[in-house]
Amino acid sequence: MKMWRSIALIFLAAALLALPDELAEGRGHMSGRSPRGGGGIFGIAMAQAKARAAWEARERAAETARRIKNNKERMIYAEKARKEGKPRLAATLYLRAGLSQDKSNRAAAKKALASMAEDGRAEMKKADNLLAKGQVIEAFEKLDYLDWAYENVPKFNEEIASHVGKLHRDPKNKAILNEVDASALLAEAKRHESKQELCCAYLIYEEAAKLVPAKSALVAEERYLELKADPKVVADAAECRIIQECHHIYHTAELLEKNAPERAAELFRKIVEQSPSDSEVYKCAREELAKISPR
Predict the structure, then answer these.
(1) What is the H or E stretch that residue 171 is in?
(2) 267, 249 in Cβ contact below 8 A?
(3) pLDDT band at residue 180, thresholds of 50, 70 and 90?
(4) Cβ distance 199 to 233 under 8 Å?
(5) What does the pLDDT read at residue 55?
(6) Are 90 and 81 in contact (CB under 8 A)?
(7) Residue 102's closest CA among 70, 76, 67?
(8) Contacts of 155 (CB under 8 A, 6+ apart)
(9) Alpha-carbon distance 224 to 63, whole Å?
(10) Which of 76, 143, 153, 183 has the most Cβ atoms closer than 10 angstroms to its Cβ?
(11) Tens digit of pLDDT for each residue in 55-95?
């Protein structure tokens, strides 16, 4: 589980499925939700992007790399970035200098990347020490960052990716790491269930159950299986899932409507074909389609 996943799963429950109280009445509260105005349907995708964007904003790696035009500048900025604790930016610049047709800085760039690999191994050892002390969350925050920051450092990038992947698969680590997300999802599912929004509760319990062996995930899995035995809950949840997917398609179509109206029309037609005819997203899609292709 990468560091962004913690935010992502909470967004999935709170933003993707949480609905205004006035719409949560019996069957079809998702059906009555308008897709207009954006919103939580992009919760998980936005959350994933947000976590990496925080690291990127700190290093401004992509922006700086685009501005630098020659190897001399790359080497200068790379050294500066390394001193400022921005390893991803430094490695990106060193790598570009090393792979350039201009051979003047190739040896220096290669040497710098080898040195960075040693820095990465030292930091990885510190993270492992945290893990050995039982500081699992702190250790993985550091390990996940190293996996991202040193992605462009040859050899070490493979070492850290393999090491982090192996540790993430360890059931003991998974139980601890997943508990934060599982407990948040479990609480959100119970909140929906207390409001008789069983379809939403069902979908969130389903997500939480995927986080076993966390304790809260095991509790969620038990309740998910109980709800799964009710055909009506399963049917309502299936409808909610379809409508959520149609909301996602709707927002994509909105973005395309001005510059690619034909493609937008295709997506609106897809919504009309897939969504229940009494749903708000169906109604909105038909209205937008009529604007693009008036008869």
Answers:
(1) helix 171-194
(2) yes
(3) confident
(4) yes
(5) 67
(6) yes
(7) 70
(8) 117
(9) 45
(10) 153
(11) 667 666 555 666 667 888 889 999 999 999 999 999 999 99
pTM of the model: 0.62
Q: How far is CA 90 from CA 67, 79, 103, 248, 283, in A?
A: 14, 7, 19, 37, 51
Average pLDDT over residues 141-151: 94
Place of tokens 């039982």: 134
| Exposed/middle/buried for residue 2 (C-beta within 10 Å: 0-12, 13-18, 19+) | middle
Round the average pLDDT of the chain to a whole number and report it: 83
Region class of 51: left (phi > 0), else alpha (psi between -120 and 50), else beta: alpha
Residue 114 has pLDDT above 70, yes or no: yes
Question: Quick check: 189 and 237 in contact, CB under 8 A?
Answer: no
What's the pLDDT band for 104 if we cut at 50, 70, 90?
Answer: confident
> How is residue 64 written in tokens?
């700086």
Span 241-253, average pLDDT: 91
* Per-residue tokens: 217: 């995930």
What is the residue whose two structure tokens read 């509260």?
A: 29
**Tokens describing residue 132:** 């050995």
Closest CA to 17 of 34, 40, 38, 36: 40
| 239 within 8 A of 30, measured Cβ to Cβ | yes
**H or E segment at 19?**
none
Question: What is the C-alpha to C-alpha distance for residues 256 and 267, in angstroms, rounded to an integer?
Answer: 9
The whole-angstrom separation of Cα 43 and Cα 49 is: 10
Ramachandran area for residue 147 (φ above 0: left; ψ -120 to 50: alpha; else beta): alpha
